[in-house]
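Blinded run. Sample ID left blank on purpose so nobody reads anything into the name before looking at the predicted structure. Input follows.
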Amino acid sequence: MSESTSRHVASAVSYTNYRLLRISILAAVIGVLAGIAAEILDRLIGLVTNIAFYRRLSTELVPIGGNTVGAWVIVIPAIGGLIIGFMARYGSELVRGHGIPEAMEAVLMKRSRIPPKVAILKPLSAAISIGSGQPFGAEGPIIQTGAAIGSILGQALQTTAVERKVLLACGSAAGLAAIFGTPIAAVIFAIELLLFEFRGRSFIPLVIASTIATEVHIVLFGPGPVFKVGIMNFGSPLILVFFLVLGLMCGLGAMVLTRGLYLIEDLFEHSRINTYLWPALGGLFVGIVGYIIPRLTYPGVDVFGPGYSVIGSILAGQYALGFLVVLLLTKTAVWLVSLGSGTSGGVLAPVFMIGAAIGGIFGLMLKAAFPELGFDPTAFAIAGMAAVFGSATRATFASIVFAFEMTQSYQSILPVMFACVIADVLVSHLTQTSILTEQLRRSGVLVKHEYEADILDMVPVSSVMLPPLTIPHTMTVADLIERINQHDPHYTAHQALLLTDEQEHLCGIVTRGDLIKAMNAGHPEWTALQAGTATLVVAYPGESVRDALARMAQADVGRLPIISQDDPAHVLGYLGRAQVFEGYKRRLQEERELEGGWRRAAPSASNLSNGRKG
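Blinded prediction complete.
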């Protein structure tokens, strides 16, 4: 048994390394494909925009606000929405929606399987939606497109559900990195919202895919930050008090966006209008607002399209207070109605713009009230952009890194971090879902926004295993049952007994179920080894209880012999389900028990039921 066990362990390690190498190579391929897909999507958006608003054939990305089509700008987004409705009706329902929740749903409910046609229909529908003036960016659609690419590769090749999940996440991260050129934020974003784990098997492929996709971004779009903001003055440390206030404002703003979006979705759901006409109605609203508002207020207000140039102008401090207020209200309204109508859209760029506008407005108001403090008001725009996005999506860590990578402004790190965590604390206290997970919650899927290591991963087997109880393998079934019926502690302490040979070497295991089967089959004369099994699933004292539990589940057994790695024939202990539970319970108590002079008693059941006596 010693040689076979050693060979099995070595073979398992070698196989794991081979699978990781294979997935990493596929991740590199996905990085290239996602980068190309991002370029194709940008070109398609430019093509649709130029045809719809400028009546010319060109793939150049141009702002829609400078068009000369006049009142036709009202109906063009509606026509785009009508096409989206037809694509959803006759193509796939997956062309609708944010993009990111659909990828999360594939991971959590569909074993990371996405239909191949989504890889074609989603970018096409997004190009029509954004190119016709809908107020979205390309990030959500390219995230879902990249996820589809990863899932398709995983389905075409022999991969497990976990490996498909990793490939799907690689595609999503690569798509995001290819659009924004933000590899670190893309990796963190995928970990927080798609993988729900931080392990070498997923982290390594993610980094490979994001790095290569970012290189593709640099080749196609050029180097440098997405938004150039220059050096900013954040004033004295006392200014952090204002960033605390901004964080609270952004947290409330994120909740308003989330509640508003799903309120509008519910209004459409309860309407009597055909489902596939909803995107056209959302587009009509966008067209009306986009046509009327610039003529009533500020001529430069442009609510159409992704608005990357508008975000850059906000961060550069090029807009006045009144302009930002109008932009905030109109962009929020058209985005909520359009996305709530079920068209093909996204969350990132609109929420970035809304957050930047909130921060910019707050900064300008503070500048007017306290001119002597000498800070740059646009500093609040960066913090607002990150804080609203982070608290709305509950991907706070990713939002902090996004703000840094998109602007490459190191001076913004401290206030951005501060505002983001304040916003996240507020939102996490008031709600359990986010703008991305509320849809999943309504489908009955629970998504936790907090990441923590498995408790059993930090408990060694040696700390919970029991001393082994061994018997000679030649003992008969009848004798063994008689000893158990006599309640001999040596034979009744465990549900299974370990069998040893003449040299006291471990050679098998027999359970009470095995004994009952042997008696029912009419073989009381069988030896314990004949009734039990010599094919052992074992654990080692130095490994974690989590690993041992996984081995139990895989082999469908309820207990494991604990052996020495140096001498596999030498049995050291016994691990059953009760010991696994004891390990979990002990670690949980260590986390919750208070120690020291300030210890306070935890509320007991009687305290909770009877209340205070006074």
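Unblinding after everyone has recorded impressions. The two ends are 67 Å apart (CA to CA).
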